[in-house]
Amino acid sequence: MKKTKIFCTVLVLTLIFGSFTSVFAATQGQIKLASKSAGVKQGDTFTVEVNITKNPGIISISLLLDHSDGLELIGAEDKKVLPGGVLSNNYSNENYKLTWINHSASADSKSTGTVAVLTFKVKEDAPVGKQTISLSTELDTVYNISGDQIEFICESTEITVQCAHSYGEWLPYNDGSHKRICSECGHIDYGAHTKNNMSVIKEPTHLEEGIGKYECDVCKATFESSVPKTEEHSFGEWHTVKEPASDEEGVAERICELCGYKESKALDMTDGSIGIIVAAAVGVIAVIAVAIVIVIKKKKRA
After folding, report:
1. pLDDT category, 176, cuts 50, 70, 90?
2. How does strand 129-137 pair with strand 157-162?
3. Which helix (DSSP H) or strand (DSSP E) does residue 252 occupy?
4. Above pLDDT 70, what percent of the chain?
5. Which is nearest to 187 in space by CA: 161, 160, 167?
6. Which of 97, 173, 263, 294 is the most exposed place for a label (fewest CB within 10 A)?
7. CB-based contacts of 61: which residues, under 8 Å, 6+ apart?
8. Distance CA 18, CA 38 (A)
9. Distances (CA, A) of 301 to 165, 209, 298
10. What string of DSSP letters covers 76-134?
11. Please, are residues 161 and 181 in contact by the beta-carbon 8 Å criterion?
12. What is the DSSP letter of 249?
């Protein structure tokens, strides 16, 4: 019997606590910050939406803004979702406040959606990395028409400041690429070599490949590359090894200076009529010479 009483007591307390929790959760509101600019650079501007996603009903709310030192608030726009908006244009105020209060309300406002849009600028000296933006409710400023205090849970957002990169000169990295390093964040950027204007430092032959030398136009790195073998022998000059005749071709050959391979070709036969002309000319000359000798002898006798 005693155990039954204890069990009933625990059950009743559980039901009461559960009901209280449900009622408390139902009276909680929720505010989320959202930005489409997840990554920004120094000097950039971006916007952040202030969104009420849960609203149990209020006539007044005041939100305090807080953000990292690398960011600067430069604008705030009331989207007229809640009545009685008061958004100061003193954006340099460290305790910047967004307030909505409706003294003439006859009922709670349960509107949800984007209630304001904040504009930020990333400072030129902002550190690279995460920058936080958050809101919190000001004490005793969130209540409904009955005067009840309403709790709002505010979710912050983060913006990543990316380095604008200040790269040094391109440096050789490997046979295929070069690199440069950002002096601000150490980021390494890679690029492919530009292999133009190869110079041959060893000519290829039909026996072995040659060697070519490149210089990258960007980083001035030099590297060697093979030059394919040729398909031709390295012949010297043609030399006649057998003179041609009127009735027989001659022979000429040349020799590969690297492997000794010989290549031959035929030389055309000489023209036979030339020989006859030469012989006739020789005969005429001989007859003329004999005649001159006879004339000289007759003159001596006379």
Report:
1. confident
2. antiparallel
3. strand 250-255
4. 87
5. 167
6. 294
7. 82, 99, 100, 101, 137, 141, 142, 150, 152
8. 39
9. 122, 87, 5
10. EEE-SSSSSEEE-S-TT-TT-EEEEE-TT-SS-B---EEEEEEEEEE-TTPPSEEEEEE
11. no
12. -
CA-wise closest residue to 49 among 63, 33, 38: 33
Token pair belonging to 274: 């030339």
Distances (CA, A) of 177 to 44, 137, 226, 246, 280: 32, 55, 18, 68, 81
Name the residue type at position 81: V
Residue with tokens 């995460």: 130
Counting Cβ atoms within 10 Å, is residue 59 exposed (0-12), middle (13-18) or buried (19+)?
Answer: buried
Question: CB of 142 within 8 A of CB of 149?
Answer: yes
Beta carbons within 8 Å of 154's beta carbon, 6+ residues apart: 30, 31, 32, 33, 63, 134, 135, 136, 137
Amino acid at the residue 192: A
Judge contact between 181 and 166, C-beta under 8 A: no
Residue 298 CA: distances (Å) to CA of 78, 289, 291: 148, 15, 11
> Are the beta carbons of 181 and 188 closer than 8 angstroms?
yes
- Give 16's pLDDT tier (boundaries 50, 70, 90): very low
| Torsions phi, psi for 296 (to 5 deg) | -65, -40
